[in-house]
Amino acid sequence: MATKVNLDLILEVLDATTTVDGLQEIIQRVCDTFEVDHAMYHWVDSAGDHYHFGTYSQDWIERYQEKSYVRVDPVIIGCYQRFHPVDWRRLDWSSKPAREFLQDAMAHDVGNQGYSIPIRGPNGQFALFTVSHNCDDETWAGFTDKHSRDLILIGHYFNRKALEFEPDRSPEHVQPLSPREIDALTLLAMGYSRAQVAKTLTISEHTLRVYIESARFKLGAINTTHAIARALSLGLIII
User: Fold this and answer.
1) Where in the chain is CATH 1.10.10.10?
2) The HTH luxR-type domain covers which part of the protein (predicted)?
């Protein structure tokens, strides 16, 4: 699997593409660059319409739709419940439907390992960027430790570009966040507690609360979790 990745080149090509077909070409490049079996981007726009592109076989895509696997897929369920990337090994595969789904996925060469990045955008938009591969747990752990940040960045770039193709989309206008607001939301998004964030930034928890509330107001968010999701989807913070 990949030991060195030219991330800048992928992002430059992604930023320059002007068609959905161009995104399909880039996702194949992601597979080649990271030396993984598959990569997939699944996008649900603000109207509830589904789009996807990636390297899974057409047989598996049709099988997934035919069986309505979206209802039992632990990856989809897990990512709806989280803001952080999801390693498939950490999901609950114990139910009978989940085990049957996994067996079917393996039969269609999806891979026994996977890493999925949930992305939330404006007006209810939801997306997943996933890479999957066949390898042992130790190899996969080393891969995700080395490349997780690159994959998160690519996932958010894909989503930002996909939003450009959404019909009748009007651009969002948000007030810029201050450096301290960005730092606070980034650390919270990484799983730090408020006490840990305050300690890391060498500020009081009261001052931290002021930064968070200010960021929340600028982002039009109803709570801190919503503010983090908005900041991630707009590319204002990256984890």
Assistant:
1) 179-233
2) 170-235
User: Which phi and psi (to 5°) does residue 120 adopt?
Assistant: -115, 130
pLDDT tens track for 78-89? 888 777 889 999
Would you say domain 179-233 falls under CATH 3.40.50.150?
no
User: How does pLDDT run across 11-68, given as a tens digit for each residue?
Assistant: 888 888 888 788 889 999 999 999 999 999 988 766 666 778 899 999 999 999 999 9
